[in-house]
Amino acid sequence: MSSTTTAGLRGGGRPGGELLLEVRDLHTQFATAAGTVRAVDGVSFGVPAGASLGIVGESGSGKSVTSLSIMRLVEPPGRVVSGEVRFKGRDLVALSEPEVRAIRGKEICLVFQDPMSSLNPVYTVGWQVAEIVRAHHKIGRRQAMQRVVELFTMVGIPAPERRVHEYPHKLSGGMRQRVMIAMALANEPDLLILDEPTTALDVTIQAQILDLVRELRSRVNTAVLMITHDIGVVAEMCDEVVVMYGGKVMEHGSVSQVSESPKHPYTVGLVSSIPTLEMRGQRLTTIGGAVPNPLRMPPGCPFQPRCPHAMEVCSTMPPQFEVDRGRAVACWLYQEGPAQ
Amino acid sequence: MTDTRSPAVPAGAEQDPLLEVRRLKTYFPVRGGGLQRQHSAVRAVDDVSFTIRRGETFGLVGESGCGKSTLGRTIVRLEKPTAGEVVFDGQDLLAQKASNLKRLRRDLQVIFQDPHGSLDPRMKVRDLIGEGLLVAGELSRSERDARVEELVEIVGLRREHLNRFAHEFSGGQRQRIGIARALAVRPKFVLCDEPVSALDMSVQSSVLNLLTDLQNEFGLTYLFIAHDLAVVGYLSDRVGVMYLGKLVELAPTTDLYADPRMPYTQALLSAIPGVGKDKRERIVLQGEVPSPLSPPSGCRFRTRCWRAEQICAAEEPVLREIRPDHWAACHFAETV
Asked: Most A CBs within 10 Å: which of B196, B228, B288, B291, as the mutation test of the A interface?
């Protein structure tokens, strides 16, 4: 049987790796006056301990709502309608708020795209990081501040003893993102979720931050879930990648498999439409049409209205067909996958 | 080889120039204190000279705050320059009187980054595209309508779209409206300031294809400003690199990407995250861009440069031609 939801996703990456995080058939919806938006519509994937998974998608693909759902940070009118988020065997969706609080910021941490709006402008950055440390450990202010100085040193903030007393507006975008990472690492989490961590940064600062995350991973063995629109960033940082479109997973596999030989028509279009130096003088491949309105999603496969291979059967959402070891594609073209 | 401190004849001036930028400076005054006196200035563009050739796409890259957008905006006179000249088709744009400038401006149009903020929400697409023609005042109403209907199809939209408002369109379609608006007055030169960076990946490529088609069809010259080095590499014939208000390197695209001669360019290009790219040694720069209020003496990049020596602090490197058509501002450009 080749159509499975998660079986194909377990084997990839690290053989025998225990799943730290497992998202099963997650549905998150927003009830708006104009109708229900199915932002996340049946998403499943897993992250083994210490591994790195990238979620790639365009605006409206549901990638950020997926990360918020994992953290239980979806606010009304949105809510997780069904599905499971198993973290170390416990279903986060079913936990009480105090139980989630004990995990959030300690075992799972989230770094957002925009560090300015995630930091409180009226407290010093040192105070804010110390608050996280003290939320999960019984230590005094002074000790907490010492820990913050250590953390700032670890993430490469120059003159940390001085920087802890500064307010967020005094720091540059790259430095603020380092503060956010220091905050996320304060309690050495098992899972670090990075939601577009470098999108607001310049390319040389992006390189610094990615370098930092890589170095820290090798030191503290944190698993990383990286959410981004940039396949290049995923290629640099992750072992595996999930491609999302219209709230659904289109394709899943190792980064080299997906970026070098994409299978889903959407991924094929996406990867081949990236302008490169080698493409100079040639026309770029384009995907016709636009990202569908989330209120008026087509039935079945969300990519179907733009797909060059659309067939009648596409009005039913295909399951994940396993096309290779650890490689799954949600497209009817792969119904007779080679794995059969 | 130029050995004057700043060459009066800018880089690449020899071949059929459409636009020459000569020693251009744009400073923004910083005021403060009780009497709001000017006490310093942000040197956003600081003594920049280069030439854009007729029919080419000139790419301009650099990180935020390097002055690339200010340079572009100064060229089309959306910013007031502090000093220097911009010679367009033989005429100095900065010395023109208002009446003449209005006529000249038709030749220089702009495509902006933000397809949401740059279109008036209360105007229909027909009026948005036709506004430039109306201001020019040369065509009758029916002539204008005919031209607008032609344009809307050229940029890949349909005639029935003309009676709608901008908010009814997706980002990609809005950018097409912006392009039609820029082309309505038949410009020779178009400043494209981050035209695709607000668009989704799957829409970017179709807008880039459109820009290429329009260039071929109408013989346009582009100044293409973007922070995305892959997009600039794909589209541009030549690329200029800016750092802290200075043009630090300028060369044909393939030459620049294959063999950058200025350390900053090397670091910038090595930082592009790539799919299946040969993992060339990544240069991770230390520190951040210094404040443009008080840039370092000598070479402005020296505070982050791994090759910096004493001469770099003492003497500002001149943008010089280190091999045919390849210009770099570095004391060690030959050996870096």
From this structure: B288
Query: What is the reported pLDDT for B309?
Result: 92
Q: Which tokens is B20 given?
A: 């020459």
Distances (CA, A) of B135 to A196, B110, B132, B324: 43, 16, 5, 44
Tell me what ipTM this predicted complex has: 0.80
- The pLDDT of residue B14 is 59
Please report the pLDDT score of residue A231 as a whole number.
87
Amino acid at B331: H
What's the confidence (pLDDT) of residue A8?
41
Q: How far apart are CA A269 and CA A266, in angstroms?
A: 5
- Sheet bearing A35-48, strands edge to edge: A35-48, A19-32, A78-87, A90-91
User: pLDDT, tens digit, for every residue of A41-83?
Assistant: 999 999 999 999 999 998 889 999 999 999 999 999 999 999 9
Contact B304, A208 (CB under 8 A): no
pLDDT in tens, B216-234: 999 999 999 998 898 999 9
What whole-number distance in Å separates Cα of residue A228 and Cα of residue B237?
Answer: 30
| Amino acid at site B285 | L
Q: Tell me the shortest Cα–Cα distance from B138 to chain A, in angstroms.
A: 36
For residues A128-154, one letter each, b for 16 or more C-beta atoms within 10 angstroms of the residue's C-beta and e for the rest, the string is bbbbbbbebeeeeeeebbbbbbebbeb
Whether residue B274 and residue A235 make contact (CB cut-off 8 A), yes or no, is yes
Testing the interface with B: which of A194, A204, A283 to mutate, by most B Cβ within 10 A? A204
Residue spans of the domains in chain A: they are: 7-107+187-334, 115-186
Q: Which residues pair with B92 in a beta bridge?
A: B87
* β pairing state of A321-324 and A240-245: unpaired
Q: Which residue has the higher pLDDT, B277 or A92?
A: A92
* Contact residues on chain B for A175, CB-CB shorter than 8 A: 288
Tell me whether B38 touches chain A (CB under 8 Å).
Answer: no
Amino acid at B34: G
How far apart CA B20 and CA A123 sit, in angstroms, is 50
Q: Options 3.30.70.270, 2.40.110.10, 3.40.50.300, 3.30.240.20; which CATH number does A7-107+187-334 get? A: 3.40.50.300
Instruction: Give the pLDDT score at B312.
Output: 94
Distance CA A26, CA A242 (A): 14
Residue the block writes with tokens 């600039």: B232
Long-range contacts made by residues B43-46, C-beta under 8 angstroms, separation at least 24? B43/B245, B43/B292, B43/B295, B44/B70, B44/B71, B44/B245, B44/B292, B45/B70, B45/B71, B45/B74, B45/B81, B45/B245, B46/B244, B46/B245, B46/B246, B46/B295
DSSP A1: -
pLDDT higher than threshold 70 for residue A15: no
Whole-prediction pTM value?
Answer: 0.84
Q: CA-to-CA distance for A243 and B321, rounded, in angstroms?
A: 46
Nearest by CB to A172, from B172, B285, B288: name it: B288
Rounded CA-CA distance B32/B39 in Å is 7
Chain B residues whose beta carbon lies within 8 Å of the beta carbon of residue A273 = 201-202, 204-205
A278: DSSP letter: G
Averaged pLDDT of chain B: 88
